[in-house]
Specification:
One of its GO terms (molecular function) is serine-type endopeptidase activity. The protein is α/β, with parallel strands linked by helices. The chain is built from five helices and ten strands.
Amino acid sequence: MAVRIGVIDSGGLSMDIEGSLAFLPDGRVEACAPDRLGHGTIVAKIIRNSCPQAIITHAQVFQERPVTTATQVSMALDWFVSQPASHRVDIVCMSLGLAADRAPLREAVYNAGAEKVLIVAARPARGSTCYPADYESVIGGTGDARCTWDQLSRLGPRLFGAWSNSPEQAGEGMAGASLGAARVAGHLANILLREGRALEIQEALSLMGECCDYFGPERRTG
């Protein structure tokens, strides 16, 4: 079984975006341009390092700046879900979060769940609501400084922590919940490979929980 993963972010390198699309703020859809921010490239690299068998397709919703809308994200998600079953993604990774609950995004997430497309979205371990991670059919991913590359933590019923290039793990440069979400998506991809079939979200949550090394939030001192 091949695992197909859709990455909704800033795109990828020029050699990595064939067949990918860009969803623009004015509602237009065009061919994905090479990543200008580097974020989507790093997210895809983390997923590939986690699961080398993963087949990644980009949906670009960030262009020159790391700013997007619920409409862009929902269009990107709808595009992934609308593909024929033989080419539909198994997982969508969104290393992003929006402050408000918007109907188009909520509906797109519901439609993804109906097709057994699992969604992993970034969510800070602490803080206010964040969408789509706060929807009940979405798996939240964040960084956990306790976790080495191979480890996973369960911070809540639907929130998992993972390696995120944190300073505590000698990381340098980009770090945080967005990279943690990518690593969580990689863990999930390996579970799908092992199981050899599509999973409902509750089963995915259960199997991910069995892989966890830590339970409950980090306890920071000092």
